[in-house]
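ligand=flavin mononucleotide
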Amino acid sequence: MKILVVYYSMYGHVLKLARAAAEGARSVPGAEVVLRRVEDLPFNLEKLEKSKHAQETLKEQKDIPFCTLDDLRAADGILFGTPTRYGNMTAQMKALFDQTVELWVNGDLEGKPAGILTSTATTHGGQETTGFTMMAPLLHLGMLIVGVPYSTPGMLHTEGRGGTPYAASTVAGGKNELNPTPEDLEIARALGRRVAEIAGKLRG
Ligand SMILES: Cc1cc2nc3c(=O)[nH]c(=O)nc-3n(C[C@H](O)[C@H](O)[C@H](O)COP(=O)(O)O)c2cc1C
């Protein structure tokens, strides 16, 4: 059973969640996990070049291949990771969705489980709205949304960190200076595991 973790990350927070989700998926017997990134867009290239933090993050990802439509088609379950942009997914991740018309027409993603990973600068910056708004294209594509139940360790909390039922998440900080907490990473691992377990059951 193939599990795809596809993400976009400018400063490394979603990359860390994606790696944790991949680890969680890999812990499920029979899961073959691939990590793929989403290509950047021309409007963002100047900003990338001027940011030392973004350059370091790019270097960290240089060996991770870009996601293709075949990667999406081949997967039995997919985790999509994106930072929040105004309470929504990034244009880079949206561009991937906007290339999936052929998959939509053929129903290639129908019935496959999907989990969401996200990051915001601030505690109330839109982790839940990004989770929710990302669900719209996933549902159009016929995917089955997999969330994070409250029985997952670390979910029942009132601290300023990630962990929503709609998406595994983290708080990056106003200058992207924070790191995902151990709980954030554990919740991302649990979501990866859950998507892989469900994909395995659905395949029979
Ligand atoms: C155009 C733009 C819009 C953003 N919108 C939000 C937002 O609505 N809420 C928020 O908390 N952070 C917002 N951010 C901050 C990013 O979400 C933050 O840098 C990101 O989560 C870090 O993830 P990464 O390290 O994986 O790139 C925005 C950043 C940019 C550049």
